[in-house]
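Risk register update: the risk that structure generation would not scale has been downgraded. Supporting records follow, first protein first.
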Amino acid sequence: MADIHPVFCTIVPPHVLDKLARADDPALAGPARRTLEADAAQRTRRRLTTVIGAAAALPPAGAATGRPQRTVHDCGHGTVLPGEKVRGEGDAPGKDATVNRVYAGLGATFELLLSAYGRNSLDGEGLPLSASVHYDENYGNAFWDGEQMVFGDGDGEIFLDFSLPVDVIAHELAHGLTQYTANLSYFGQPGALNESMSDVMGSLVKQYTLDQTADQADWLIGAGLLAPRVTGVALRSMKEPGTAYDDDVLGKDPQPATMDQYVRTGRDNGGVHINSGIPNHAFCLLATQLGGKAWERAGRIWFDTLTGGALTVDADFASFARATVSAATSRFGEGEELDALLKAWSQVGVPTMTPREV
């Protein structure tokens, strides 16, 4: 595997915070600007850490047994990470509901990876899972910084507590999974695939915890995160990209569902949170076509693709699609899984053959 280059990945896209920061209402603009400033500082820290080299988190004794090793810290509304340790592996639940939710979300993600795919934590070797809560004041985001997860409490006006949706917790952890496997670069189409893989895993963990079939799932990312004043249901919709919100302050969800609507932009690392709607939609189409539990067949194909070694760090949508075809064929043969997969990619306008095969 190529050298790992950890990146700073947030659940709320910069374009959403930029929109909020320009709002006339200071109760909306102030927290958004503060969040943008905090995110910029973390990105700088991540670049410096990447250059200098981060200390590796070593699995503790017993990690190879396939049990999670969770630690949750409390930043006390400051920005020094990781903060004070408030719950370790095996500790009883405390009075802080945010801490308890994050602890449970870490466990649910670990459990899905192990039970469905036989993977022992993010790196496959029992990597400890660390998270920090109550980051900064009115911080409207959650992020993976290459080493741990961090959650803000939201501003109460647009965003609520970021630990509320379990798929947000799983989304951020999945950036770590990608980091330790395909290590997709965080720009343009590979960056959109990076974001999409986190949305896929986030949705799968949510469905797994609720014991839902693909047709029972809402396929929303961040449902329950938006405050009551917002006209919207979530941050993103995998089933209907572009429909998650349409709000006077936030604007309209810009995600495309097909390549015909692909957005070319230099913002948001080349639109990583925007164009991720296309592979998200392909996965949802595949999972609903196959039916049953999405993590069993559709999720297996995506997991095999991510971890199989065929993806380069600069993989685009087409090369990812071709890799899923190989993964599906290797795992399931040329049956209904492959047929549904080819149909899904065709529906979103991503080719599954090389130009010379066409």
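Supporting record for the second protein:
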Amino acid sequence: MLEDPATAAPSPTAWPTAYPQGYAVVDVETTGLARDDRIISAAVYRLDARGEVEDHWYTLVNPERDPGPVWIHGLTSEALEGAPLFTDIAEEFSARLDGRVLVAHNAVFDWQMIAREYARAERRAPVRQRLCTIALSKELGLPLPNHKLQSLAAHFGVVQQRAHHALDDARVLAEAFRPSLRAAAAGSVRLPLQECLPLTEWRDTAAAAPRIGRQAGSHGGNGGTSGYTGYSSYQPTSWRPSRKRPACPYPNPGRYEDGKRLKQGMRVAFSGDTSIERDLLEDRAIEAGLHVSTSLSRLTSLLVTNDPDAGTSKVVKARQYGTPVIDEAAFGQLLRDVEPASER
């Protein structure tokens, strides 16, 4: 891709000596967000010290279970049935990561999914540091409307071709990371590197989850997740101090519709335990431009719950009002591509 000289920072002649010598830009698509969810595709763009692409690699991965929200990532059981297991691609994946800083958009998520897959395979990922492009964009003070990948890409004139496809997402991120890295070098900005601590042991609690070829249900156009039971046994604490949330700046566009994107301004309520910290999930929703509501009313656009059969007041009201209900995994995937609010 040719960079727009108006947006791309020039490559400085004096490159910071403390900067890493190479990067691995990574994107993984998964069956969901929980600790027991699995990688179903992975892509790596290897970059040199100054962000130039050296090569790229992509693979499907058989998760040995239900593929999760197919309507988001498009990977069906049939598409994944003949794919290699993670243990089959672990060595090649390691070769792509070895000696490099892992770069990803919301890097903690990609790193955690990768680390868990290696732990299941009784191996360690050869990654010592990671760099989140969200954190880097904040360090650079980029004038982005939000922290979505498409906003970062648009800032640098990078065109997305296949959203939620690991290879294209990794390409987009690599092309947006290069000018970001050059801008950081030109300004002698300290890169927001984080240490990667690999898991040393793993106990899989999703043994009962449906496996590919014999899952309990299919993912049709109604956006359901029949048979998807791979949630973590981890239970976060039920008590949380109250946090003052900023007011949502967008009008409520109405209810969420199955098979469509979330839209900024939608009112989202949560019910029951979540497999990742509720505060983190709510923060991600707010950053995406959604209105997180502590109660459920006729104005609520969507209820997120891992137990739609529970008798909680929110679930009961959702049934009464006809409020759409989805699980945490599907919500996490939808958060990656929220539609901008309509201009007033």
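The beta strands are 22-30, 39-48, 53-60, 101-104, 129-132, 193-195, 267-271, 291-293, 302-305, 325-326. On this basis the risk owner (M.S.) recommends closing the item.
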